[in-house]
Structure formats: structure tokens, C-alpha cells
Design brief:
heterodimer, A: about 375 residues, alpha/beta, D-Maltodextrin-Binding Protein, domain 2, 2 domains, four-stranded mixed beta sheet, two-stranded antiparallel sheet, 15 helices, about 65% helix, elongated, B: about 300 residues, 11 helices, 14 strands, nucleotide-binding (chain B), transport (chain B), P-loop_NTPase (chain B)
Chain lengths: ~375, ~300
């Protein structure tokens, strides 16, 4: 087993391109989606419809900029349309008095957040206007504002370092966890695909004819795939925590534990896929399909909290990435409730054991 | 030493090997000759314990290999048809890995590596990556790996496929040396008749999963002792000639070759004048005529009606 494991490391030393490339891609996507700085304000270019007067424009701009998460800045209509069309800016808002439209250059994870926020601002404002109209009281808006500023019950949560948690979605952690888990699927399954490659080239049979037991050969490969995937994720998490100040929580040990459970589940999923496909080429075709759909449905690309479709939510319950994201977000929010963490991690381990059993069985039947 | 009894292998509905019984005595060099798809590789996979037979048994010194695959493995070296090596590693790194897998280490491993590298003539290039080797060199290191643990018997599955004549000759000499000087038992499969003729004491001819003939080269060619082979070289192909030649009463078999036709006929049949007449009717230009003693290729042709490399 040790010889097989060390041999895979030796082969990696000779051809490390895939692993390095996956790490570079991960880091690149995290920066692109999560940003570099400690603040995570989303800049939104905005232009007003000609039908709005100056006072309406000022009020709406003020209301939109009340959130710390977004920064709305004015742009000329023609300039906005041109720059969105050229892809220089990802989106722009065209605001009217009672509605808005969003110009979009390409799919972007921030659309959903911006759309959700702007819609809420409009809904609140329209409600207030309706109340004003129905009560015919010019002071009703002030009264409501006053009541809202002096609510009888306020919900707030704080982290140990005193930073207030808004209860919203941390876009930076979402990008860090999502992209790292997503790209690690490629690294792990590609590392594991060496089993199929060895069976094709005949080196597998050479080992089977030697005194080494078959389970030792499997174990050597599984340990290698696990180690590569595990190290890739842990190195990226550690790098972003300590070098770029990402708030992944105080307990890095818990992160490592969650990563280990997730890596085991993905190694097992890889074995199942190896058992199901007939050739290495088929595996190479299937891996991107499985990885991308799993990341989309499991909440790696965007927060699962934003998904309302019951079918997608049901499917997400059988995907390991869903539970890994859940566990990592819990750890990042400094929720040290062991039972809350134990549930997703246990499901990951169970998923791993089931897939591993079926996968090895299928592979052996093909021999 | 090694014996198979009524070996049979069925893959789904395809009968790959059917009732194959053969034996090898210690120090013998035995050939398994047959065209592609004859069942040679499946047979040796069953002998080497990689594939479980559907029926029949393989025994090594009287012990069943099917029931206990371990009984043969430590004594067995297998040279697969494919280059079963890690091409991104050097020859030495490959040998080291497979040596360790066989439990060799330290000085013993180093000595064995040096010995097999010398045998295959790659000592000078031992630190080169295998992917940078020529096809012939890759074949040689493929053999070296199988010899690392000093097996008593070596099974070689078409070890010279796709290489240049010089490398092929080197490998054949090496196999002869292993068999004659080191007393290693060899089971050699090939569809190259001349290789089997050169290397093997006894030959099994396989076709469609069955052993169709067995014996020494002399015993096999004596099947055609009452026959001879007429080789016609023509200026170009004449497909219509074949059926007319086959209709001649004295002709047992006709097969098209690269340059013309090959006819198996009774000895001294005085057939040539009729052959010339048929050729003239078709305005075929005969470049040369050769009357030969039958070869193993002719035996195969006689038994199956097909060429070995069809």
C-alpha cells in the first residue's frame, strides 16, 4: 500500500500541472467572486428615468444607499447601456419612480443579491406611499420612521470579536467555500482516475500478480486521492484566512475536520463514478457534468438559502457539497454547537461509505 | 509443472476459449500460435490467475491455480502485450517500484535491477524517462520488469508487436538466452509464425478459442507431409483467378497473398501446366513460381482455410 501511495506522489512530482492549475483556478475565482479587500461592498451603477424629478431621484438614491452592502452611483443612460453591452460593467439599474429594470452583461452571482435588495427598497417605498394615500395623513411617514427607530424588540447577534452579524449572506465566504469545494472535485476524481488508467495500461495487473493484495493497491490510490484533495482545500482555506483575512471562524481545527469528511465523500463518489463508467474518456466527460451540477444545486455557486424550488432543494439533500457548505458556514459563523455540526458531517461520512462500497463492488465486477 | 485441463471462458455470450488443454514441462519453451482473436491472451490470463475460467482448471505442480491463485504468482513473470509501465517515470524508477512490490529492497533490489537492465541492454539509458524510449526499448523494459523477481516461468504475450526488426531480433535472442542458458520455462504467444518456429520446442495452434493442432514444428508440418505449397507471384491482383484455381481438382486450398496466390496441393501433382493455362485465360502475368516445403503458416492455412494474419 505504501509503495503504491508513494508511487502516485512520485508521478505527481513529474506531472503536477493539473493540481497546480486547479489551485490557481480556485484562487482566481475566489478573488473574482469574493473580492480582495476586507469590505465587501457591491458597486451598482444606476441611472434615473427622465420622468423622475430631481427630488424623487435624491430620495431614491438615499434609500438605496442606506445599506452598507451596496454602493449605488450615478451613471449616464447611454454610457450605462454601452458599457454593459461591451461587458465593461456587469450590470446597471434603470430606475423609474415605481419600478426598475436591470441591464445585465453576463450571469453573475451578485445579480440575485442586488435584485433582491432593490426590490425590497421599492416594495417598502410603495407600501409607505399607499399608507400615505389611504390615511391622507402627511405625517404618517415620519411616525412610521419614528416607530421603526424605537421598536419594542430588536434581534441582534454578535461574534466574539464584537462584530455584528447581519444574518445575511457573506459573499466572500460563499466564494471561498464554494469555489474551493467545487474545484477540489476535479482534483480528487482526476487523481483517482489513475486507477482506471492503470487498468488500461496493464500496470494494475502487474500489481495484482505480485504479492501485494488487491485491497492494498486500492487503499494506496484512495489515500493518495484523499491527501491531494484534502491538502488542496486546507491550503487554500489557510491561505485566505491568514493572508487575506477571510473570516472563516476561530476554529480552524473544525474546518479541517469538515474538509476531511467532505474529501472522503468525494473520493467515494469518484470510486462510484469509476465503477459506473466503462472508459477513462467517459469519466473525463462525466466529471465536469457531475461537478458543475452538484455545485449549482448544492449551493457552491450561490447560497442554497436563495433557492426556493422544492425539487432543487430535495436534490440538494443527497449531494455531499450541500452538507460541506452547511458545515463550513456554521463554523465560519462561530457556531460551535457540536450537534449542529455533527449532523452534516455524519451525512458526509455515510454518503462516503455507501458510495465507496457500491463503487468498489462495481469496479470488481468489471474485471 | 504447469497444466490446463479443459479450460473454457465465456464473456457474456461470446465463447472466447473452448476446451483448451495444454501442459508445460520445466525448462521447456512452448509457443501458442494463432491469429488475433484466437483466444491466446484469454488463455494466458487464465493461466496467470488474472481471469477466472468459466470451466476447467489450471494446475501448478499439482495445485489448482483457480482455487489458490497465490500458488503460481511468486514463480510467474508475465510480459503483457501492452507496455505496462509508468511512462512519465524513468526505467530505474519503474524497476524500483515493481521490485518493491515484489518485496525486494536494498542491495538485493539494486543488484536485480542492474542484472535485468544489462540483460535487456538498457543500462546506459536507465535514467531516461520511459516515454522518451523507442518502441523497441519500451518493449525491452517491459520484459525486464517481469524478470525482476527471477520467476521460474515467464509468459510472454506477443512481446514484439509493433517494433522494428532489430529490436525484435534482440528480444528473440534474449528469450532464447533465458530459456537455454538460464533454464527458464517460457510460454510464448504470437501470431508471427517465424518467431514461434525459432523459439519454441513445442507449439499449440489456436483458432476460434480452440487448440486445433499441437506438437513440435516437425510434427505439425508433417500434417502436410503429403502436400506441397505452390507460391505464385503475379504482376497485379487477379481476384477472379482464385475461384478458378480452387476449382482445380488437385488444389486443396487457395489463398491470396500480398503479391499473388498460394496453393496447397498434393506432392508431385504436376499441376503447374494447368495453373499456367488458367493464368493465360485470364491474361494474368506470372512473375515467379515457387514450390515450397510446407511451413507452420501452411499448416494453419490447411487447418482453417485462413492466413495467420487475417
Amino acid at each position: 500500500m505504501r509503495s503504491v501511495f508513494l508511487l502516485q506522489l512520485q508521478r505527481l512530482r513529474r506531472e503536477p500541472a493539473l493540481v497546480i492549475w486547479m489551485m490557481v483556478m480556485t484562487v482566481g475565482f475566489i478573488f473574482m467572486l469574493g473580492g480582495l479587500g476586507s469590505a465587501s461592498t457591491i458597486d451598482v451603477p444606476l441611472y434615473f428615468d427622465a420622468s423622475m424629478d430631481e427630488e424623487e431621484q435624491d430620495v431614491l438614491l438615499y434609500q438605496l444607499n442606506e445599506s452598507d452592502a451596496f454602493s449605488f452611483s450615478l451613471i449616464e443612460e447611454q454610457d450605462a447601456e454601452k458599457r454593459v453591452a461591451l461587458g465593461e460593467i456587469p450590470y446597471a439599474i434603470h430606475a423609474t419612480a415605481e419600478n426598475y429594470e436591470m441591464l445585465i452583461a453576463a450571469d453573475d452571482a451578485n445579480h440575485v443579491f442586488i435584485d433582491q435588495y432593490v426590490r425590497q427598497v421599492y416594495v417598502d417605498e410603495l407600501r409607505l406611499q399607499q399608507v400615505e394615500q389611504s390615511t391622507e395623513d402627511p405625517r404618517i411617514r415620519e411616525e412610521i420612521d419614528q416607530n421603526l427607530s424605537d421598536v419594542p424588540l430588536r434581534l441582534a447577534s454578535e461574534t466574539v470579536d464584537g462584530e455584528e452579524q447581519g444574518g445575511g449572506i457573506d459573499q466572500r465566504n460563499q466564494a471561498l467555500f464554494g469555489m474551493t469545494l467545487f474545484f477540489s472535485i476535479y482534483t480528487i476524481i482526476q487523481s483517482l482516475s489513475k486507477v482506471a488508467e492503470e487498468k488500461r495500461t496493464g500496470t494494475w495487473n502487474r500489481m495484482i500478480l505480485s504479492p501485494v493484495r488487491k485491497w492494498q493497491v486500492y487503499l494506496g490510490h484512495l489515500c493518495y486521492a484523499f491527501l491531494i484533495g484534502f491538502l488542496q482545500i486546507v491550503i487554500i482555506f489557510a491561505g485566505f484566512k491568514y493572508l487575506f483575512g477571510y473570516g472563516v471562524g476561530d476554529s480552524f481545527g473544525s474546518i479541517v475536520l469538515a474538509v476531511a469528511c467532505y474529501t472522503f465523500a468525494i473520493v467515494a463518489l469518484g470510486m462510484l463514478m469509476l465503477g459506473l463508467v466503462k472508459t477513462l474518456e467517459q469519466l473525463n466527460a462525466v466529471v465536469p457534468i457531475v461537478a458543475v451540477s452538484m455545485a449549482m444545486i448544492g449551493g457552491a455557486y450561490w447560497p442554497i438559502e436563495l433557492v426556493s424550488n422544492s425539487i432543487i432543494l430535495a436534490i440538494s439533500k443527497v449531494l455531499p457539497i450541500t452538507y460541506a457548505m452547511e458545515a463550513l458556514k456554521q463554523i465560519a459563523s462561530n457556531n460551535h454547537d457540536f450537534t449542529a455540526l455533527a449532523q452534516p458531517l455524519s451525512i458526509l461520512l455515510l454518503f462516503g461509505v455507501v458510495c465507496m462500497g457500491i463503487g468498489i463492488n462495481l469496479m470488481e465486477r468489471k474485471m | 509443472m504447469l497444466e490446463t485441463t479443459s479450460l473454457k471462458k465465456v464473456f457474456k455470450k461470446h465463447l472466447a476459449v473452448d476446451d483448451v488443454s495444454l501442459y508445460l514441462d520445466k525448462g521447456e519453451s512452448v509457443g501458442l500460435l494463432g491469429p488475433n482473436g484466437a483466444g491466446k491472451s484469454t488463455t494466458i490470463s487464465m493461466i496467470s490467475s488474472l481471469v477466472k475460467p468459466t470451466a476447467g482448471d489450471v494446475t501448478w505442480d499439482g495445485k489448482s491455480v483457480v482455487k489458490q491463485p497465490g500458488v503460481i504468482r511468486e514463480y510467474l513473470g508475465v510480459v503483457p502485450q501492452e507496455i505496462a509501465l509508468y511512462k512519465e517515470l524513468t526505467a530505474v524508477e519503474n524497476l524500483k517500484f515493481f521490485g518493491r512490490v515484489y518485496g525486494l529492497k536494498g542491495r538485493a533490489l539494486t543488484e536485480r535491477m542492474e542484472s535485468v537492465l544489462e540483460l535487456v541492454g538498457l543500462t546506459e539509458r536507465k535514467n531516461d524517462l520511459v516515454k522518451n524510449y523507442s518502441g523497441g526499448m519500451q518493449r525491452r523494459i517491459n520484459i525486464a520488469v517481469a524478470l525482476l523477481h527471477e520467476p521460474e516461468i515467464i509468459i510472454m504475450d506477443e512481446p514484439t508487436v509493433g517494433i522494428d526488426p532489430q529490436s525484435r531480433n534482440y528480444i528473440l535472442e534474449m528469450v532464447q538466452k533465458l530459456n537455454r542458458e538460464k533454464g527458464m520455462t517460457v510460454l510464448y504467444t504470437s501470431h508471427y509464425m517465424e518467431e514461434v518456429e525459432r523459439l519454441c520446442d513445442r507449439i499449440y495452434i489456436m483458432d476460434h478459442g480452440k487448440v486445433i493442432a499441437t506438437g513440435t514444428k516437425q510434427e505439425l508440418t508433417s500434417i502436410l507431409s503429403s502436400e506441397e505449397t505452390i507460391v505464385l507471384e503475379l504482376d497485379r491482383p487477379y481476384p477472379e483467378l482464385k475461384s478458378e484455381l480452387a476449382d482445380l481438382e488437385e488444389v486443396h486450398r487457395v489463398v491470396e497473398t500480398e503479391k499473388g496466390m498460394k496453393l496447397i496441393t498434393p506432392k508431385n501433382s504436376k499441376l503447374l501446366s494447368k495453373v499456367f493455362q488458367v493464368a493465360e485465360r485470364h491474361q494474368a502475368q506470372i512473375v515467379s513460381v515457387n514450390v515450397q516445403i510446407p511451413t507452420l503458416e501452411d499448416v494453419f492455412l490447411h487447418l482453417t482455410g485462413r492466413k495467420l494474419r487475417d
